Amino acid sequence: TPKMLTRKIKLWDINAHITCRLCNGYLIDATTVTECLHTFCRSCLVKYLEENNTCPTCRIVIHQSHPLQYIGHDRTMQDIVYKLVPGLQEAEMKKQREFYHKLGMEVPGDIKGETCSTKQHLDSHRNGETKADENSNKETSEEKQEEDNDYHRSDEQVSICLECNSSKLRGLKRKWIRCSAQATVLHLKKFIAKKLNLSSFNELDILCNEEILGKDHTLKFVVVTRWRFKKAPLLLHYRPKMDLL
What we know:
metal-binding; Ubiquitin-like (UB roll); 245 residues; three-stranded antiparallel β-sheet; 9 helices; alpha+beta; PcG_RING_finger; Herpes Virus-1
């Protein structure tokens, strides 16, 4: 029965997953590093990255000079934290209201009244009920359009050499390419498949240092973890996919 399948978990057991490693408090304005997916309070992470360029948890290099461009607000994680920790959202909104009152500033509309529930918060964004949401969506859409038109030319770039190491496939006419560091191995698979007229990009494996790369790895991640102390270009090999039993 549903009652028998219900399992109670103590908050203490999951604290490690919903707390910030920098302040040891519950996540507030949860912000995630895009490369390694570790999450922190936004204010804690921004302050930390003013003098560092590595993740506080795993020490991976986020970006040599602009690490703040490679972090993002994690709304899903923040909603989970607010839902799991009783009274946390209300307490945080109260602190923010007191902060604005102390400075003699007008309190923003989203924290002026009592805090809505997580579900109401999500529904309001989904239905576009507030003007602020509409403006935010419009700005996001415009920013995305600008990014699309830019073709990621403003991103950090990575030089790559794509070599074929199988007699079953032909080499590329132009094996030297330069692309965004945010491109993934999956993007390269699709690129190679299109150039070689393959029926599916899933037929390919891409390797670095004879190690098969995961399709979701970004080129930045590959450079940092597999090519960090070597000279450009990043040398990658492709071959027909091997089914490992």
